[in-house]
Amino acid sequence: MLEAKGVSHKFDYELFNNINLCLHEKETIAIIGMSGSGKSTLLNILSSLLMPNSGEVFFEQKDIYKQKKSKLLNIRREDFGIIFQAHYLFRGFSAKENLDIATLLSLNEIDEKLLKTLDIEHVINQGVGELSGGQQQRLSIARVLTKKPKVIFADEPTGNLDKDTSTHVINALFKYVHSCNAGLILVTHDEELAKKCDKTYKLVDLKLEEIR
Ligand SMILES: Nc1ncnc2c1ncn2[C@@H]1O[C@H](COP(=O)(O)OP(=O)(O)OP(=O)(O)O)[C@@H](O)[C@H]1O
């Protein structure tokens, strides 16, 4: 469903060169690597947010960076779910209002079971500013899943969470991927979490190496 071909990128220095990656339905992929190796940059490229210096990213056989801007925005809004380290929640609104925005855009219902799995059903009427960092992170994951994206991109999705909560969050993401025929690419420093994915790649020496 998503394929990167010959992707290279540099800022002040070269980050990676000729990266190839393929994500299939129901597949989960982890990307690990040293701090500064370019993991988040690669995720931004794969998720339509940053055009690479060279190479292509195909979603459903079409090069996303060759699409019209309006089409690219549609893919980003409807097909891709992007979970950032910074949550981008609407702070002046309640947790529920933040989810309502996703239901308005997608015409899906809020999934009460998902809220329970993520352990945020009891804070749903509170303002975002009253939630802990971990609760905000789980709310942003709930908002992304409510949209029912085909591909989820997650940058350190369990970064702020304790071990038990991390397990709940990862189980919710994996369950979503399998039940909705979606795909997941996540960036993490947590090697245990990476091992739970179907494939793990390490960004090292400008290349993406598969770890077995
Ligand atoms: N928009 C940008 N403009 C210029 N340089 C950038 C930009 N974004 C990232 N960089 C640089 O690219 C390098 C890789 O950053 P990136 O965030 O992709 O690494 P990372 O592997 O995700 O790191 P970490 O594990 O610490 O989050 C860093 O040196 C960073 O300063």
UniProtKB/TrEMBL annotation:
<keyword id="KW-0547">Nucleotide-binding</keyword>
<dbReference type="InterPro" id="IPR003593">
    <property type="entry name" value="AAA+_ATPase"/>
</dbReference>
<dbReference type="Pfam" id="PF00005">
    <property type="entry name" value="ABC_tran"/>
</dbReference>
<feature type="domain" description="ABC transporter">
    <location>
        <begin position="1"/>
        <end position="211"/>
    </location>
</feature>
<dbReference type="GO" id="GO:0005524">
    <property type="term" value="F:ATP binding"/>
</dbReference>
<dbReference type="InterPro" id="IPR027417">
    <property type="entry name" value="P-loop_NTPase"/>
</dbReference>
<dbReference type="InterPro" id="IPR017871">
    <property type="entry name" value="ABC_transporter-like_CS"/>
</dbReference>
<protein>
    <submittedName>
        <fullName>ABC transporter ATP-binding protein</fullName>
    </submittedName>
</protein>
<keyword id="KW-0067">ATP-binding</keyword>
<dbReference type="InterPro" id="IPR003439">
    <property type="entry name" value="ABC_transporter-like_ATP-bd"/>
</dbReference>
<dbReference type="GO" id="GO:0016887">
    <property type="term" value="F:ATP hydrolysis activity"/>
</dbReference>
